[in-house]
Amino acid sequence: MIRFENVSDEIILLANEIQEKWFPELIDVKIKYLFDLKKRTSGDKIILGRCQKTDDLVKYFSVEEARDAEGYQYIITIDKVACDNIEKYDKIRILRHELRHILVWEKEDKTIYKIHPHDIEDFVEEIELNREDPRWSLRIGALISDIYEQQEEIEKEK
User: Which CATH number applies to 4-157: 3.30.2010.10, 3.40.630.30, 1.10.10.10, 3.30.930.10?
Assistant: First the structure.
């Protein structure tokens, strides 16, 4: 079974709105959005999203789809179970968080692409934007973890 699938049009539109509002500097950056169909964890925490810089092989294979001679510069994966079970404002939080990892600048007529690490466990800007629900990712993680456990139990019973 393939681990990833293309995100829905809803997620693409939402990501574009987020870029317009919070990250206009990324408008020319080619980003591929995918759903992750498998549970991903780090320690005991569910990974809701992930941003990766592409390597030369992915760039090569994505030139045509990205409609760009360089292909995609980044891939953002979102847990599909999470996306299917959370509200729009939490989808925005996940996407916005992942977009914060994108770091692009110009140096001597060359564009440099990097992954921006967390300031702390999160980004300072995200903590401020989520001050009304500072534990949002833990809340979603617990919900998604429960859903995965239920799915595993159903599979065992088959």
Answer: 3.30.2010.10
